[in-house]
Design brief:
Blueprint (H helix, E strand, L loop, with lengths): L8 H8 L10 H18 L5 H20 L8 H4 L14 H11 L1
Helix pairs in contact: 1-2, 2-3
């Protein structure tokens, strides 16, 4: 699939710095961006890949820490905000590993 709302740690780092625009004004925005990274990771990588597995483990650890630090607070994700666009199967892009294999087999 094509990732329609890309997010990475360098973008989050920039948004954590007050001298950059845009920057985070609420903790909910930060948490939603972190969750978006995990969502994109799960969506783009093959489920049985090392990257997808590591992403799931890191996501579980992040959610555990978040619950320990903010036990009373519920953080919305981008999906709760309605900001994510609709993904369709027409936008399919093979994960990197598959694309590489396909290139090799078509040569």
């Amino acid at each position: 699939k094509i990732i329609k709302r890309p997010m990475d740690l360098s973008a989050i780092k920039k948004k954590l710095q007050a001298n950059h625009s845009p920057f985070y004004t609420k903790s909910e925005e930060f948490v939603a961006d972190i969750r978006l990274i995990f969502k994109n990771c799960a969506e783009f990588n093959e489920p049985e890949s090392e990257v997808a597995s590591a992403g799931l483990k890191l996501e579980a650890y992040f959610e555990e820490l978040l619950l320990n630090i903010f036990p009373e607070q519920k953080f919305p994700s981008h999906e709760d905000d309605g900001q994510l666009s609709d993904d369709s199967d027409d936008d399919f892009v093979a994960p990197r590993k598959k694309r590489f294999k396909e290139r090799l087999s078509s040569s």
